């Protein structure tokens, strides 16, 4: 079963303002994007589980026009506040890389 | 066909661009040249301290080339969010650089400074009138929060920039501005519809970032009635549907609804198509004006003073019990700080453990996977004054270095410190405290414009 890191062309995170981090996964091939979308694996519940945040706090959008998925989460600590580990939010994407996408398993 | 061409030199003024890209870009006869000068992205410090996050000489290099190009072509040069955070000191520092370059190069022009700092009285009146709204689940704005703020900026839309262009300014330095506004202003003023004008701004706000290879450089965007075309002047770069799609998601909570002062840019149904192997056309964006014009406010307050240190351990016995060691360390620091008379609750200690969860903290799914051969630590103490922060940090550093633990063999010290002095006072620590919107009747009212013959 391929992982996101095996099939996506972009997987990245960044601040969306000082209080949110936004995580994007992009595919160059719209057909592959459509197949990934059809698996239903990428959704708000997945991000809630991966990052330990409440599902209602995850703003999840598939974005057909760009063959992309976006999820925006509240940061653990506002950017630059005491104990923040990532002021730009640019290194919060890694847990997504390992997510399996059951492309070859219709029962998946 | 009405068409506006706009040349953005770089993602941030001072990040640099190639002179060759600038030359080729100017050969396309753009109607404006510019760059975004800032962002909240580097954190609250810069808005609080009034300083920039780019080196002055880097900014001066970029500005000099841009001003020379603008004067030669007789087109406006616009800098958004001047000086990094767009407050008054940032705007004045950038203006001083422009004057300095003009003197050195023998340039003269009409310059506009558009101020964006908001005074407490204006903000309190907006609060009293019920015209402010919290973003990101912050508390409702109140007078106490306004009084505590060190600096508050409003984020301007295109209207004050259009006004400065109408007044004949050739160099326009904006205080805090919405990233696309400096570009939307030029296209809207030329009679193009808001939707492609704002979208062009979205593409131009970070220079060549919608191109590959993705490095700081120039981007040329052509705006027409129902679409924009992005093309990097530098022949080593290309815009592709993927590179443009990637950038279309940049730093926005939603890929579809982009809330801007005065309206919403809806990109749900855009089409992204290659025009050539280096140029991409984007069409199908929509703009809906909002019934109320809102200005985003950004403010920071002083949270105390900070000191930090960096160290690492290579001891497997310690690494095997690091959680209990750090828990005991926290208690030892509290006891020692109390013993030397530092008020309990008057300081905060944060320890980041690199090699374990230093990057993702509580979001790290693999913090207990395997046993690394070394761990790095960054210790931070924030207290009400610098001396207290220095004192508690020194206590924390000594304790981390010398405390005993079960099975300890490394009896001379538990940590490797790479520097002497080991403790680094970081000065004032600011935190974002205001992230609200303010409804206004006149989009230009919060942003007074000052003109100057340079």
UniProtKB/TrEMBL annotation, chain A:
It holds the Pfam family DUF4387. Residues 4-99 form the DUF4387 domain. InterPro entries: DUF4387. This is DUF4387 domain-containing protein. It comes from Neoroseomonas marina.
